[in-house]
Design brief:
About 40% of the residues lie in helices and about 20% in strands. With about 500 residues, the protein is an alpha/beta fold. It folds into two domains: about 10-260 and about 465-485, Aldehyde Dehydrogenase, Chain A, domain 1, CATH 3.40.605.10; about 265-450, Aldehyde Dehydrogenase, Chain A, domain 2. The chain binds 1,4-dihydronicotinamide adenine dinucleotide and magnesium ion. Magnesium ion binds near residues 237 and 240.
Length: about 500
């Protein structure tokens, strides 16, 4: 961030295409509000199909040209340089993230930004380690594989971890030698465009990364259905994930999807209850509950229910909700008015379905400055049945549904009774029970006596309708490479099949 800008005036951003910052072809812009106040925080160029076409053409030119000629070592060095520039500017980027998204500064500083740096660093190291194989085929033949980049990748990301989601997508794609057109979410376009400045500063060739901010139905749909891309990667709602898969099917574009969840976070009576309560809080109140792997269904063993609920409520009521720029704040506003209204409607649905609003369920009392912000209280729903909508649909807010169970068999049946399968947690002192659960649960990530643990080296992704493909770790490279098998005759003899 070479040019510091005052916080009070609106920030203006352009699209990043072919190494240049440019206005949208239409000249259109859109406003991104600060969710804590509802006031406009930034004005951003609004990309449409024409801009996506330009970006895809730039990415294609870079893929066929300069980027393919750069050595793996230099590719790794560029990605590493980028991680260092992000680390240099981490404090300012964290502040911008908080102003654009609403998440507490404590989170953007200690979770988001370190995660971004870690992902670029980790995948910088992979660039020189992507290797083919030699295959022991029979006969006088030599067979080997080449692991090559897929090509031009479209990447569409959500607003819940704006810069971190950009890193999860860009880092493996670039490491493997692909070029990218990235579309950030319209709610949180700012930090991706700040990242573009650092991509420029790091010295990536023009067109390797292109960033087009705009709406899903226009820019996003144009990217997903584009004939010029070789792969589309998406993180967001299961509903839109299906649209992406459909659009991709038309061109047989490769697809990876990281979609919604309704994770079971299971508490057995034999667990350390203090730790389990903290784990339940981490599962559902972190990032205002706007987390795809949120532990939104809390399964409590029947006999521990009352004690758990008592302690959980006491701690939930004490969470400091408010000004996200305050270092002591643990929950800021939801990202948008639309999301806030969606959460409110689910609390009404819960009441109509016969659940109890055990605590929360409304907007917190806050200072005048934040009266137009999109805040919601930490909320616990009890007397929830697993078949209710609040137990089956992703709410994406700080709303936990507490469900009881009597034994392991009932638990597994209910925990798996969902269309989703992204993650799961279990709290118990019984290691046999914990591992039995880890095996039986249909989910891509399982946490035992912990929650939300992640690392750039460890794969993350879903079973069932939570998506396909794995992000992070070496598995992410499978999404961004394709295998070529090469056969070489060593016999020197002609093929005799049709006669000599
Ligand atoms: P969304 O799935 O509509 O948006 C995610 C991204 O997809 C954004 O960049 C958006 O512009 C883009 N998009 C939207 N429609 C598109 C289309 N037709 N073609 C191509 N791209 C498109 O999510 P939204 O509307 O912001 O939130 C709705 C719900 O989705 C949330 O309440 C939550 O349940 C879920 N969600 C899940 C996320 C996750 O991490 N799994 C992240 C964000 C939302
Ligand atoms: Mg949407």
């Amino acid at each position: 961030m070479s040019t510091p800008q005052p916080q009070t005036t609106e920030r203006r951003y352009q699209l990043f295409i072919n190494g240049q910052f440019v206005d949208a072809e239409s000249g259109k812009t859109f406003k991104s509000p600060n969710p804590a106040t509802g006031e406009t925080f930034a004005e951003v160029a609004e990309a449409d199909k024409a801009d996506v076409d330009k970006a895809v053409a730039a990415a294609r030119k870079a893929f066929d040209g300069k980027w393919s000629k750069i050595s793996a070592r230099d590719r790794g060095r560029l990605i590493h340089k980028l991680s260092q520039l992000i680390e240099r500017d981490a404090a300012q980027l964290a502040e911008l993230e908080t102003r654009d998204n609403g998440k507490p500064i404590k989170e953007s500083t200690y979770i988001d930004l370190p995660g971004v740096v870690e992902n670029f660093e980790y995948f910088a190291g992979w660039a020189t380690k992507i290797e083919g194989e030699t295959i022991p085929v029979p006969g006088q033949v030599f067979n080997y594989t080449l692991r090559e980049p897929v090509g031009v990748c479209g990447q569409i990301i959500p607003w819940n971890f704006p810069l971190l989601m950009a890193a999860w997508k860009l880092a493996p794609a670039l490491s493997a030698g692909n070029t990218v057109v990235l579309k950030p979410a319209e709610q949180t376009p700012v930090t991706a465009l700040e990242l573009a400045k650092l991509i420029q500063e790091a010295g990536f060739p023009e067109g390797v990364v292109n960033i087009v901010t705009g709406y899903g139905e226009t820019a996003g749909a144009a990217l997903a259905s584009h004939k010029g891309i070789d792969k589309i990667a998406f993180t967001g709602s299961t509903e839109v994930g299906k649209l992406i898969a459909t659009a991709a099917a038309d061109n047989l574009t490769k697809v990876s999807l990281e979609l919604g969840g309704k994770a079971p976070n299971v508490i057995f009576a034999d667990a350390d209850l203090d730790q389990a309560v903290n784990g339940a809080m981490m599962g559902i109140f972190f990032n205002q509950g706007q987390v795809c792997c949120a532990g939104s269904r809390i399964f409590v063993e029947e006999k521990a229910k009352d004690e758990f609920l008592g302690r959980f409520k006491e701690k939930a009521d004490r969470i400091k909700v408010g000004d996200p720029m305050d270092k002591a704040t643990l929950m800021g506003p939801q990202v948008s008015e639309e999301q806030l209204n969606r959460i409110k409607s689910y609390v009404d649905i819960a009441r109509n379905e016969g659940a109890t609003v055990f605590t929360g369920g409304g907007s917190p009392e806050l200072a005048e400055e934040f009266k137009n912000g999109y805040f919601f209280q930490p909320t616990i729903l009890s007397d929830v049945d697993n078949s209710m909508r609040v137990a089956q649909e992703e709410i994406f807010g700080p709303v936990s549904s507490v469900i009881t169970f009597k034994d392991d068999d009932e638990l597994i049946q209910k925990a798996n009774d969902t269309i989703y399968g992204l993650s799961a947690g279990i709290w118990t002192r019984d290691i046999t029970r914990a591992h039995r659960f880890a095996k039986a649960i249909k989910a891509g990530v399982v946490w035992i006596n912990t929650y939300n643990m992640m690392n750039a080296a460890s794969p993350f992704g879903g079973y069932k309708q939570s998506g396909y493909g794995r992000e992070m770790g070496k598995h992410a490279l499978e999404l961004y490479t394709q295998v070529k098998s090469v056969w070489v005759d060593l016999s020197g003899k002609p093929i005799g099949w049709f006669g000599k």
